[in-house]
Design goal:
Blueprint (H helix, E strand, L loop, with lengths): L2 E3 L17 E6 L6 E13 L2 E16 L6 E10 L8 E9 L3 E10 L5 E11 L5 E8 L9 E4 L4 E6 L13 E7 L5 E7 L1 E2 L2 E2 L7 E6 L2 E9 L2 E9 L4 E5 L6 E5 L9 E6 L3 E7 L5 E8 L4 E6 L5 E6 L4 E5 L6 E6 L8 E3 L4 E3 L1
Antiparallel strand pairs: 1-29, 2-3, 3-4, 3-6, 4-5, 6-7, 7-8, 8-9, 10-11, 11-12, 12-13, 14-15, 16-17, 17-18, 18-19, 20-21, 21-22, 22-23, 24-25, 25-26, 26-27, 28-29
């Protein structure tokens, strides 16, 4: 579904199109030129006396908006994994994000007898300025020991993930923590830092944090602690993940709008229990100042800031889409649409913008 955004942030009635394959996730590039879609996934099971594949190849597809009505037109596609495997195996997409020169994704694969093992893999696909997709880079993480919790700061090409402590090849430590990786020009990952601290508290083994959002070298992650037992958001600075603060509240999702000018503070939106939406401004030291909050009927599952920084769109777990103006420093509801969908991306035309 494609909605046109009017100057007030409201969404005009959508146009609906079928894209021809199972599209599970959408992401936009920062310039609003393209929409990237994660297609495919499969399950392998017994069909009578034979082992049959139910599903399609894992693919990334680039679409460009038609300037007349915003409808998506195919530009390029590439296969990242071929369907198939042993009986009991399943595979598919877990997460997708778009950057200026690469598309980032997380792929899961259940394998082994009756699918007893689970591997998460980071997938990175090069994107040219015309939307053509290039070489695919893949990095499989430790099977059965990686929780598959990641986020990418597409502005600085850094991947943050929940992970174990650095180990020698072939060994696994059951010690929960966070890692920071530089995404190299070819899509490969270079690990830079690791931390299992939240301020001065140690994150318990196997209590893997969830990276929520990153901006200007600061990371905010949801962490479970035991002394006392609680969930909280912790902040970290730099590629070495220096622990900064225990923010004293928990959150399940987050997103940031980062202005191009360094003098302007980033805006950070988070979903907190209640359920509630909170909007913060982040200063140069990584501290968050609460600007406004808004109760929600259901927990928020995805946020999307308009590239202008004027609007924030929120989808909750019941597929309700809510739009807010945020340029005045607060949250002003301008739109609420039931059954509006899941993943979102924004494209920008010469005179209008569209949200999906």
């Amino acid at each position: 579904m494609t909605y046109e955004i009017d100057p007030t942030g409201r969404l005009r009635p959508p146009t609906t199109q079928h894209v021809g394959r199972d599209a599970y996730m959408l992401a936009g590039d920062p310039q609003g030129r393209f929409v990237y879609a994660a297609h495919g996934g499969w399950q392998v099971g017994w069909n009578g006396a034979a082992c049959a594949v139910n599903g399609t190849d894992g693919m990334v597809v680039t679409y460009a908006p038609d300037p007349r009505d915003g409808a998506l037109a195919w530009v390029s596609e590439t296969t990242v994994y071929r369907a198939g495997g042993w009986c009991g195996e399943g595979a598919g997409w877990n997460w997708l994000s778009g950057g200026a020169t690469r598309v980032h994704g997380l792929w899961y694969n259940r394998w082994g007898t009756a699918g007893h093992h689970l591997t998460f893999s980071y997938v990175s696909v090069a994107v040219a300025s015309d939307g053509q997709l290039g070489p695919v880079s893949r990095r499989a993480f430790d099977f059965d020991a990686d929780p598959g919790r990641v986020t990418v700061d597409v502005r600085s090409d850094v991947l943050y993930k929940a992970a174990n402590a650095p180990t020698t090849p072939g060994t696994i430590h059951a010690q929960g923590g966070l890692t920071a990786h530089v995404i190299e020009p070819d899509g490969q990952l270079t690990r830079m830092g690791w931390s299992n601290l939240c301020l001065a508290a140690t994150i318990p083994p196997l209590a893997y944090p969830r990276p929520l959002v990153a901006a200007r070298g600061f990371l905010f992650a949801s962490v479970s602690l035991t002394e006392p037992e609680r969930k909280t958001v912790c902040s970290y600075q730099g590629l070495r993940l220096r622990p900064l603060a225990d923010l004293g509240f928990s959150a399940s999702a987050g997103e940031a709008f980062v202005p191009s000018g360094e003098a302007m503070p980033p805006l950070v939106a988070m979903a907190v229990p209640g359920p509630e939406l909170r909007l913060f401004a982040m200063n140069g030291d990584g501290d968050l100042q609460l600007l406004d909050s808004e109760p929600l009927l259901n927990p928020a599952s995805q946020f999307l800031f308009h590239p202008s920084g004027r609007f924030l769109y929120v989808v909750d777990t019941s597929a309700r889409l809510r739009g807010y103006t945020v340029d005045s420093g607060g949250l002003e509801l301008v739109e609420s649409i039931d059954d509006a969908g899941g993943n979102m991306a924004i494209t920008l035309g010469e005179a209008k913008s569209d949200v999906r």
